[in-house]
């Protein structure tokens, strides 16, 4: 049976853990708000980009010689996977979900006889994947050097993927990231970047507008829009990952704080009972000692 | 009669307001978006976007290339990078130009598409220096 001193020490240590987890929860909540604001601020550009791209792609549809960024290489042999996790842990199952999804995907593709290459983004997924698949990893990068993700980080990654495609290093590129549903829920999602899955012509209100003219011409416009669109999509998933990471951490730390509270209650009860037992035992000793005299 | 003008960079919306005219630097020459303009999509070179209300320029932005979507009632400018003219810095732009010229020197002269991209960036940096100088009081146009 634990002594009173041991129990006091354990209560103290759980209390300081609770302080840390509740502080982390608070920090994550503040960061989450900021990340959500940034994600919302980036949306207008992405929306406008998608609209333009759909418009241009529609007008060139059916023509030959389309850029590989749009249609892929026409093959399905080499797959490039880009899993995206956070750089830091203590965010519940946020990173392990990405790791598990990626591993299953790698094994599935390998079973189909495809060649797989991996370009992990974020320290956590790189650490995990370099254990099992270190020979498949061609490069890796961190999610964010500082606290805010600049667009240039997404631009660099986009350029790297584009140049890999031009060198014929892969046929299909898939991004694995946590889709931000709400603060509680982030769903690991596979998004195919190349060949590009364009939204169908769902913009019915656009159909009324007269046909667009393009300058310089559709082909040139398309070939400069596509790399940009890739970067914008990557940027959007990076911001979503940042928001999701903080959401997941907030939830995880909230649970941890609550668990610590319960543990403290349990330990305090045990402490008081032990103290009472000790007192009773002492009294019994004194009384039985007095009776013996 | 006015059009909704929006200037968006990948990170945020910089300007969203009604205006009478927006003059932007198209890749093949400046283009003005006015009410009832025929739908047009174009690529932009580095240069200055002027927003007009009446006959006066109310806002000036530098954009470092991008795209524009012009429609009868609205005009959306997707800038790779956009800055208010008065926030530009000549020194920053000159440093950027020096870096670009250096990488142009070192670049593979046979790789024409890559050289074209570099040339566009150099043009954009030169336009930025010009725009930044024009924004300094006493050095007006």
TrEMBL record, chain B:
InterPro entries xrefs: ATP_synth_F1_dsu/esu, ATP_synth_F1_dsu/esu_N, ATPsynth_dsu/esu_N
Primary location class: membrane
Intracellular or extracellular location(s): Cell membrane; Endomembrane system
Membrane topology: Peripheral membrane protein
Alphabetic keyword roster: ATP synthesis, Cell membrane, CF(1), Hydrogen ion transport, Ion transport, Membrane, Transport
One GO cellular component term: plasma membrane
Superkingdom per UniProt: Bacteria
Example of a GO MF term: ATP binding
Keyword Kinase: no
Keyword Cell inner membrane listed: no
Family assignment from sequence similarity: Belongs to the ATPase epsilon chain family.
Known partners and oligomeric status: F-type ATPases have 2 components, CF(1) - the catalytic core - and CF(0) - the membrane proton channel. CF(1) has five subunits: alpha(3), beta(3), gamma(1), delta(1), epsilon(1). CF(0) has three main subunits: a, b and c.
NCBIfam families: ATP_synt_epsi
Protein's job: Produces ATP from ADP in the presence of a proton gradient across the membrane.
Protein name: ATP synthase epsilon chain
Gene name tied to this protein: atpC
């Amino acid at each position: 049976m634990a002594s009173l001193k041991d129990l006091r020490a354990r209560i103290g240590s759980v209390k300081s853990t609770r302080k840390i987890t509740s502080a982390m929860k608070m920090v994550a909540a503040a960061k989450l708000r900021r990340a959500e604001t940034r994600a919302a601020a980036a949306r207008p550009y992405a929306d406008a980009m998608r609209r333009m791209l759909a418009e241009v792609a529609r007008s060139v549809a059916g023509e030959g010689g389309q850029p590989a960024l749009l249609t892929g290489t026409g093959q399905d042999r080499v797959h490039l996977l880009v899993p995206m996790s956070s750089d830091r842990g203590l965010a519940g199952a946020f990173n392990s979900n990405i790791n598990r999804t990626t591993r299953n995907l790698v094994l599935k593709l390998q079973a189909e006889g495809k060649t797989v290459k991996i370009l992990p983004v974020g320290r956590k997924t790189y650490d995990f994947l370099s254990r099992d698949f270190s020979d498949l990893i061609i490069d890796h990068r961190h999610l964010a050097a500082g606290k805010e993700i600049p667009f240039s980080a997404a631009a660099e990654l986009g350029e790297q993927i584009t140049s890999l495609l031009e060198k014929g290093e892969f046929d299909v590129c898939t991004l694995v990231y946590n889709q931000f549903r709400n603060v509680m829920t982030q769903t690991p999602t596979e998004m195919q970047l190349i060949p590009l899955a364009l939204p169908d012509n769902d913009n019915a209100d656009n159909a009324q507008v007269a046909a667009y003219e393009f300058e310089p011409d559709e082909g040139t416009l398309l070939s400069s829009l596509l790399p940009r669109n890739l970067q914008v999509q990557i940027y959007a998933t990076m911001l979503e990952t940042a928001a999701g990471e903080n959401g997941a951490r907030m939830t995880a730390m909230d649970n941890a704080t609550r668990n610590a509270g319960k543990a403290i209650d349990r330990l305090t009860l045990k402490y008081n009972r032990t103290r009472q037992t000790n007192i009773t035992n002492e009294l019994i000793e004194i009384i039985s000692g007095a009776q013996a005299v | 009669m006015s059009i909704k003008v929006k200037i968006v960079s990948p990170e945020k919306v910089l300007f969203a307001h009604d205006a009478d005219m927006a003059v932007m630097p198209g890749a093949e020459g400046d283009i003005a978006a006015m009410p009832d303009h025929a739908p047009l999509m174009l690529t932009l070179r580095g240069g200055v976007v002027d927003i007009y209300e009446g006959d006066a320029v109310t806002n000036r932005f530098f954009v470092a290339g991008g795209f524009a979507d012009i429609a009868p009632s609205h005009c959306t400018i997707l800038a790779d990078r956009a800055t208010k003219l008065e926030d530009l810095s000549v020194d920053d732009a000159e440093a950027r130009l020096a870096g670009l010229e250096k990488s142009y020197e070192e670049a593979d002269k046979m790789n024409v598409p890559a050289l074209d991209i570099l040339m566009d960036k150099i043009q954009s940096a030169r336009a930025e220096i010009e725009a930044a100088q024009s924004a300094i009081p006493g050095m007006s146009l």
